[in-house]
Every structure is written in C-alpha cells, then in structure tokens.
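User: Reviewer 2 asked us to show a designed sequence for the structure in our supplementary figure. I'm pasting the structure tokens here. Could you produce the per-position amino acids so we can include them in the response letter?
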C-alpha cells in the first residue's frame, strides 16, 4: 500500500499520544489498519511544554502503529487544541470585478484570503477560516454561492485562532520525530467528524470532548459549525483532586477514578469502602466510595458548568439557535459512570455518549470505537477526505497563510508575488486546491528547516 492510499492521524493529547493509520474501503467507509499509543509526557493542557519528551512519545506511538500495520509512515495530520485556542465571528465581503460571470471557487478563495489578513493580537495565528452563510447582492442565507451571478459576495465566518508558538512547537516535534506535517486541524472539529451524524449537525448539537488536559466544545446547527471553544480542564484535574482529597499517589487516584469513580454521589452507600495499599510499609488507606464520588462530582459539575456557559454564549436559549439533538459526550472522560445523567440534569438537554463508529467500516475492532479515539479517528477521516472536504480548502489556506507570513518575515522581497501567483490559479476547483496544498507543504518544510 502506498502512503497516498492511507492517512495517518496524530492526536497529541495531554495524557496520551495516538497514531492511527486508516484507509477508505470500497464502500467509502474508513478502515483502521494500525494504531499505536504512548503515554504523553511533554504536554500540559493541550500545549507542548517539553519538546524532547514529546518527540520520544510521538516516535513510540508511530513505531507501534507501524508494527501494527506493517506500513511505513512518512506524513501525518495533527490535531491542535489547548487553552490558547479561541474563536470569533467575522463577516467580510468582496466586490467582484465582473458581475456578469458566475461566482466560482476562486472568488471564495479570495474572500477567505481576505479574512486571513485580519489583524490578530500579537503572537496569534488564524488556524481555520470556516464560512457559515454567504450573501450575494444582499440575498441572505445562501449555503453554496458557486454558480450564482452577483457583484457583491459576502459571508459570515467562524474564525479559529491559536498561538503561533504553540503551533510551531507542535510542528517542530513532528518534524524532529522524522515525520512530515501535512495539515493541522482543530481537535473538536476532528472529533465532531468522527462522532456526529449529519442529521445531528442539521438539528443542532453540542459535541463535548472531555480529554485529559482540556475539554473541547464544537457546536453545529443547520449542518454548519457555529461555535468552538477549548476549556482548560479535563480528566486530569479530577485525578488531581482525588489525589489531594484522599492523600494518595497519582497512579492510585487514576485507578480509583476509572474503577470505582462515579459522577453521581447518591449512587454509593456509606459502607462501601476501598482499601488502598500504603506506601513502603505504611498502613493501608481506607476510602469510602461516597467520598470518592463527591470529590469527582464537584469537579465534573465545574467542567460542565463552564461548557454550558459556552453553549449559552452561542445563544442556545434563542428559538432559532436551539440545539435539538442536545449534547454528545466523547473523549476519555466520557467513560465516567453516570456522567450522561449528570449532564442531562445540569443542562436539561438530551445527552448521548459518542462513539467514533459513525463512518468506520464494520470490521474494526471494538477498541478503535472507544470514545478515547474519537479525535484520532476524526483526524484520519479529515486526511482521507482532503479532496472533497468542504472545510479542507480553508484549512489549507490558513496553513498557506501561516507559512507565507513566516516566509515574509525571512525574506521581504517576495512580498506580493505570493498573492499574484495565488490569484492566477486555474479556477478548476480540484487543481486549485491541490496546487495550493502542494505549495503550502513545500513552504512549510522550508520554514521548519529555516527555523532550526
């Protein structure tokens, strides 16, 4: 099998790093052919804070995936999350030179490109520019303007912004691990791809991905991404609380949480007790399950409240923005007992646990369809759909932009050529995307080489 038949997703998380290899089968479903995971040591709350350890963890996960599949991996799609991610709404327009010609993908590229020139706070970088609805000559609520006539093309955009240094650190780690970075995708978008059905995205749904270091949120309505947020709490703070509250070591706290933890304290009777061996000759500790679930409950409520605040910020209370399909929980944290009931109780919204089997072929083993792998499966899918993914061109464009900025810093003389060559791309959709992508890939490699 060639590398171009397969796609590799690399989910660099706070607790684990997962490398997943997948390909499309003849029915268009995704088949996972290899998976490798390692403990993530150099990442804190979704942000790399120890390059050396992260590189080792990436290499370990990749080697495991290669051994599992018998394939050699050369390039990967990486997910990005972390507390530095924020999103904003922005609207922009272009006036077309020739209104007698129909709108084509070139016009949309021009419009997206314009959004990339938005002035960000120092040290921030646009990761995704996702068009929501378009307006043509004042006619609103157009989902697909290509092929229409009009002089003024306007759009609302959902713009996702992150820290340049964090993105570059991830690029640095991937490159040092001997891999090429083919794209960067926002993790909540990847998870949403893997877990949500099209009907849910139409009806309106909030995807909550509870990871180790962060909790990611993505809200969809009418099939379009409306809001994204990354909350800097996850399963690790629960473990931390158990560790502090019960005066035990982290490993024991994690095991307690997984084996006996529950988000609903009413479940446990007062006389249910777990005995934990003491350290090096000390007395064993006895912990009541009621206390354990009280500790967990308090922290989980805090996380859900934060997420619910974001859902309210999006405008869930308005009739037009109502999320009919409610909430879907995924990520490792979604495996906590009685979490679904607690989320329903706090938010009053329908809730289900999301397994990433929405687009997977039926013969994948049950391990792959665990909520833990939602992001990795989503990254593989994003990579496989490069050709016909609606968002992909924006992703590629934003990466293109990121590298252009870097290259501009290094050699000022190429200032305007970039955009001219860019405008002259043939308007055939596939060719344009492909060449932009290639151009970006080459640039990004150069930039990383120069950054060393």
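Assistant: Here is a per-position design you can include in the supplement:
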């Amino acid at each position: 099998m060639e590398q171009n038949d397969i796609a590799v997703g690399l989910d660099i998380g706070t607790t684990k790093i997962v490398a997943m290899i997948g390909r499309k089968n003849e029915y268009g479903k995704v088949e996972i052919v290899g998976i490798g995971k390692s403990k993530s040591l150099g990442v804190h709350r979704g942000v790399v804070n120890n390059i050396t350890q992260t590189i080792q963890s990436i290499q370990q996960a990749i080697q495991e995936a290669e051994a599992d599949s018998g394939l050699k991996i050369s390039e990967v799609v990486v997910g990005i999350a972390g507390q530095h991610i924020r999103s904003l709404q922005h609207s922009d327009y272009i006036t077309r030179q020739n209104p007698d010609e129909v709108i084509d993908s070139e016009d949309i590229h021009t419009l997206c490109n314009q959004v990339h020139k938005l002035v960000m706070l120092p040290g921030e970088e646009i990761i995704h520019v996702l068009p929501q609805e378009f307006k043509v000559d004042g006619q609103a609520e157009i989902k697909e303007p290509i092929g229409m006539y009009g002089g003024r093309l306007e759009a609302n955009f959902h713009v996702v912004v992150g820290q340049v240094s964090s993105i570059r650190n991830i690029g640095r780690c991937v490159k040092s691990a001997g891999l090429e970075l083919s794209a960067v995708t926002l993790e909540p978008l990847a998870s949403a791809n893997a877990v949500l059905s099209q009907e849910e995205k139409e009806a309106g749904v909030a995807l909550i991905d509870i990871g180790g270091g962060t909790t990611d949120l993505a809200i969809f309505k009418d099939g379009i991404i409306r809001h994204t947020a990354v909350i800097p709490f996850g399963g690790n703070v629960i473990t931390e609380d158990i560790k502090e509250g019960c005066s035990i070591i982290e490993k024991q706290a994690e095991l307690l949480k997984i084996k006996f933890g529950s988000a609903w304290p009413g479940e446990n009777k007062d006389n249910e007790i777990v005995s934990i061996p003491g350290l090096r000759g000390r007395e064993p500790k006895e912990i009541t399950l009621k206390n354990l679930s009280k500790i967990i409950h308090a922290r989980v409520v805090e996380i859900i409240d934060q997420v619910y605040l974001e859902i309210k910020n999006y405008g869930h209370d308005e009739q037009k923005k109502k999320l009919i399909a409610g909430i879907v929980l995924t990520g490792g944290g979604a495996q906590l007992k009685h979490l679904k009931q607690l989320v329903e109780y706090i938010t009053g919204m329908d809730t289900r646990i999301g397994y990433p089997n929405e687009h997977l072929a039926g013969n994948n083993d049950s391990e792959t369809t665990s909520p833990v792998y939602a992001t990795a499966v989503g990254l593989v899918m994003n990579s496989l759909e490069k050709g016909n993914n609606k968002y992909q061109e924006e992703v590629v464009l934003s990466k293109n932009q990121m590298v252009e900025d870097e290259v501009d810093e290094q050699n000022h003389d190429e200032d305007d050529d970039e955009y001219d060559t860019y405008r002259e791309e043939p308007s055939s959709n596939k060719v344009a995307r492909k060449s932009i992508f290639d151009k970006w890939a080459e640039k990004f490699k150069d930039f990383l080489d120069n950054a060393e």
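For the response letter, you might also mention the following. The domain at 235-299 is CATH 3.30.420.40 (Nucleotidyltransferase; domain 5). Residues 195 and 444 are 30 Å apart (CA to CA).
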